[in-house]
Specification:
The complex is a heterodimer of chains A (198) and B (299). Chain A is of the alpha/beta class and 198 residues long. Helix content of chain A is 28%, strand content 29%. In chain B, helix 2 packs parallel to helix 12, helix 8 packs across helix 9 and helix 10 packs parallel to helix 12. The chains are: A alpha/beta (198), B alpha/beta (299). The interface between A and B is large, with 49 and 42 residues.
Chain lengths: 198, 299
């Protein structure tokens, strides 16, 4: 199982470290060849508009889109969540993502940096203490389709969702040193799909 | 269920985390909404709203201050990416005003005329994170001790001459490497020499890096300049006058963005360096009399 972290822009190293803590050797991927070579992908936090523009400029946008559509396990945090949602609200006029999860995600919904926060969350599917979640100019999920499972919410807004092989969080587990969500991705989404032979 | 009372804003993790999200990106100086939109379209991760770019501050002289809040608000309305703004060194009231406007980061900047020649702003008092310039590791750690959540190595702003940025980036990484190679009992004297708190010195020695994101700034004018700073260890790049003082800002901005992502791929860099039109004219740092060098402001 090879997991890549999309390395166009954002906190790539933190995701690689979190996956490393789960015993997975992940690497940053930018080129077509690198993206084709991985079995699963993490789209990091960063600036969603920048990541999408770079993906287009370097000709990997459609590749990522089609790999996500054809079952590649993918986890997106913050900007990554925006990019793998089918619909982006409050994006730029021409903002486009890879899509995949049947959900509407509102960009910067929790406000500007002055409103950024950390809090304790209950996350369905991981056990133990509450998860300390860091939200930075974070999006929230406005609405979800029937196939989407809500794993965590804050103030009535879903902030962690899953649809089959796709996982998205509004917050940044990679910044906390708590790797339970990365482990959940590796154990529940990546291993499941490799068993199914995708 | 969610424990509401556990919710905190303005923590170090939230402030430093914001800078983590900017890594591998380019932050561009803009003076109006139109430039901000060009920067966003080119793929900037954030814009820095200011009244005059450093090249103009240098040319026109006089006291350079925080920008008009009206202009900052205008820029905030026109783009969806983060908007930063500059306060004068030590001018904590300018910082209070910028925080009330909801800017995403405050740059306590030597490009503006300092308001206090002894003290920097006590940045722990703010919910909003700060980025500060540094020419060496000691200066960087002093700023972090005052609450800076991000550091940019200083270059000589408004010149298009990258040499100072190179010097300072090398100085910071050289001093970090030196600390990493020291015996633990040598760190006390190292802290004294760096004029920095022992705890931060020890942390850097152990981890081999700054505890916050390190960008670079000042004098970056071309895709090659930006890529060189990345290869020297910067997490990302600020570009000031280099874009909007050039012949074709939109194109140059996009080329610098791509060059920061593929900073170690000379083929991509060659492609991005093609046909960009005229770069900003530039001034050699050596030709600027010492009292007019901005990088030397800050203590």
């Amino acid at each position: 199982m090879k997991i890549g972290v999309l390395a166009l822009q954002g906190d790539v190293a933190e995701h690689i470290a979190s996956l490393g803590d789960c015993g997975v050797i992940a690497s940053g991927v930018r080129s077509k060849q690198e993206i084709e070579s991985v079995d699963a992908l993490v789209i990091p936090g960063g600036e969603s508009t920048t990541i999408a523009k770079l993906a287009k400029a370097f000709g990997v946008f459609d590749l990522i889109k089609s790999r996500i559509a054809s079952g590649m396990p993918t986890y997106g945090s913050c900007a990554g969540m925006i990019l793998i949602a089918d619909q982006i609200l409050d994006g730029g006029a021409d903002q486009e993502g890879f899509g995949g999860i049947d959900a509407q995600v509102r960009r910067n919904a929790f406000g500007r940096q002055v409103d950024s926060f950390e809090t304790d969350l209950t996350f369905a599917g991981i056990s133990g203490a509450a998860f300390r979640a860091v939200f930075i100019r974070a999006p929230w999920v406005e609405s979800v389709g029937t196939q989407v499972e809500v794993l965590a919410s804050f103030n009535g807004h879903p902030v962690a969702i899953r649809q089959g092989h796709l996982l998205a969080t509004s917050f940044h587990p990679e910044l906390t040193g708590d790797n339970r969500i990365h482990r959940f991705f590796v154990d529940q989404l990546c291993k499941e799909s490799s068993k199914a032979g995708i | 269920m969610t424990k509401e009372n556990s919710t905190q804003t303005g923590t170090s993790r939230v402030k430093r985390g914001m800078a983590e999200m900017l890594k591998g990106g380019v932050i561009m100086d803009v003076v109006n909404a139109e430039q901000a939109r060009i920067a966003e379209d080119a793929g900037a991760v954030a814009v820095m709203a200011l009244e005059r770019v450093p090249a103009d501050i240098r040319a026109q002289g006089g006291v350079a201050r925080m920008s008009d809040p009206e202009m900052i608000t205008e820029i905030q309305k026109s783009v969806s990416i983060p908007v930063m703004a500059k306060a004068r060194i030590g001018h904590f009231v300018e910082a209070q005003i910028l925080q009330s406007l909801g800017v995403d980061y405050i740059d306590e900047s030597e490009v503006l005329t300092p308001a206090d020649y002894t003290h920097h702003i006590d940045k722990w008092n703010f919910t909003i994170p700060f980025v500060c310039g540094a020419t060496n590791l000691g200066e960087a750690l002093r700023r972090i001790n005052e609450g800076a959540a991000m550091i940019r190595s200083k270059g000589e702003a408004g010149t298009g001459d990258v040499s100072n940025a190179t010097t300072h980036m090398r100085a910071i990484s050289d001093e970090i490497r030196r600390l990493s190679s020291m015996r633990e009992d040598e760190l006390y004297v190292a802290a004294k020499e760096l004029q920095a708190p022992y705890d931060l010195v020890k942390e850097v020695a152990t981890t081999g890096k700054l505890p916050v994101v390190l960008f670079t700034a000042g004098g970056i004018a071309t895709p090659a300049d930006a890529a060189m700073m990345m290869q020297l260890g910067a997490d990302g790049v600020f570009v000031g006058s280099g874009i909007f003082k050039s012949g074709d800002p939109a194109r140059r901005a996009a080329a610098i963005v791509k060059s920061v992502t593929f900073y170690d791929d000379a083929k991509v860099l060659a492609e991005q360096s093609k046909g960009l039109g005229e770069a900003m004219v530039g001034i050699n740092v050596a030709d600027i009399p010492a009292p007019h060098r901005l990088a030397e402001r800050g203590w």
